Structure formats: C-alpha cells, structure tokens
C-alpha cells in the first residue's frame, strides 16, 4: 500500500477547495479541515438528496432528490430539482413520469444548457453479474434542457454519464449479466467505444474525464479485477480477520479503489489503495488531484504519484463536484 501523506497537506495543496457533496440527506459544502460541513439545502425529512451536479461557476446546481411517488404505494425514486445554494430554495426541473422510474446521476454537458442523467426502470428485472455487490435496475442515459424541456433518450443502455470538458465525448458505465464496462460515446458520429470490457472488474462506477480531456478516473471494487487485483492477503491478515472480523470497509461491503487510464483506454492502473465504501471520484480543477468520497472516510490523492491525504471525518455517498475557487 502506498504511504499516506499527513492530513494537513490537503490544505497545503489546494487553497480552500470548494467541494459540493451530499452529506446525510442534504447538499453541503465540505469542510476538509474539520467535521463542520455547511448545508445549503433544506429538504424535508420525507425526502433525501442522492446525487448532485453543478456548473463550473456553481450557478446552476441540480440534485437528484429521492422521495415517495404520489399514489404509488410508497414506492421511492428520484426527481431532478434545481437548488439555489445561497438561499436553499428549490424548484422542479424534471419530475418522474410515473412511480416506476427514478432520475439519477445528473451531469452537465459543457454547453451548460443540456443536462444528462440516468433513468432507472424500477419495474425492470435487476441485473446482477457474477461478483457484483449490488444488483442494478435497467437504465438508460437521457438528456433534458436546463429549463426542463426537450427530454429525450441519448443512449438506450447506460448509467452514470459524464461529458468530456471539450464536449466531444461522453463516458459512461454499462452493466449486463456478463459484467460491467466503461464506454465512450462520440458526439461527432454517435459511435460507442469500449474502454473497459465486461469481465475485467466485478463492477465499475463514476467514470470521469479529466479537465484536460486526456485521462479518465473511475472506481472499482478490489475483488474481481481479473489479473489486476491487489496483492493476496497474508497469513497474518487471514488470522487477524478470523479473530476479529473484517475491517470497517469490509463490514459495509467490498472495498473499492480509484483507477486511472488514458482517454483511449491505455495505461490502465490503480492510482491508490483506499478501500472505500461505495466511493465516488472527482478531479481537482487543475487535474493534479483526485478526491475520493466514501462512506468510511475520504481521501485526496495525487494523480501522478498516488500519495494519499486521508480525511476520515469526511464521510458520505454519491458524486461530488470540485469547483474552482
């Protein structure tokens, strides 16, 4: 395992990073120096923020907000709502058509006029390839204008979209009964290229283009990485686990790590071993750092060296947005 840097280096490498995330049931600005995050939403107790996105200047924040669908017997899914981070006021951007769909993983296209999102079919047969921890509902990638009009299907099968900053490509994950993959859709001709084929990892999540369009970061579980798995446990590791049980990350589920590759799929490598619980990954605006947000603690990772800055008191789930100061 790579050595961890002192926690104080987070403040030294970036001046007051502006990172927007879901904390508990609300959207909040993270505080990386103390566990005093600043909530910017006031969602009712019956609803909870699941995922969010923001334009680079934080002028338009959209939250995937989970709630029960009226008249659907308590069936929960998510709508897309606008959030004013100054006042906490919200307005509906796109509401579910019925109780069997959920609108998740919002992400802005670089023109700042188009919002991408994942539409899950909660009535469909879940997909669960071998080794995957959580079954996934059938999903497709859709888009809608910033004013809520013009909803349409972009890709019939995919999840967790993220656009390249230059607007030429879209990276996304796809899950079938054969496994999970990472693919890239071309704006120019609509073609789809496979970068990580099914079967390489047990699962993948939150692929993200770097600010310069030349790299893609994502997270994957430590198990099931065919030929690329971490070192096997030692006898001492096995004895410790038999006596005391699994570590915290294993108690929650399979530990995940951040991975990097070039935008064409070459130079695939694990950038650091963090063992996060269902983490997400985000790039710093200058592309030098990665922020790993996890339910068992977070990390700032040097993208080149893999040096870690642990932030154990920063805990949560879902994608985060690292904005320029």
State the distance separating the first and last CA atoms. Answer: 32 Å
Provide mean pLDDT, rounded: 87
H/E element sequence: HEEEEEEEEEEEEEEEEEHHEEEEEEE
Beta fraction of the residues? 35-45%
Strand order, sheet with most strands? 3-2-1-24
- The number of E-state strands comes to 24
How many helices does DSSP assign?
3
How would you sum up this structure, described in words?
It is built from 3 helices and 24 strands. With 325 residues, it is mainly β. A 4-stranded antiparallel beta sheet has the order 3-2-1-24, with no helix packed on it. A 4-stranded antiparallel beta sheet has the order 4-5-6-7, with no helix packed on it. The relative contact order is 0.14. The model is unreliable at 1-14 and 229-251 (pLDDT under 50).
Entry keywords:
42% strand; single chain; mainly beta; 24 strands; 3 helices; four-stranded antiparallel β-sheet; 325 residues
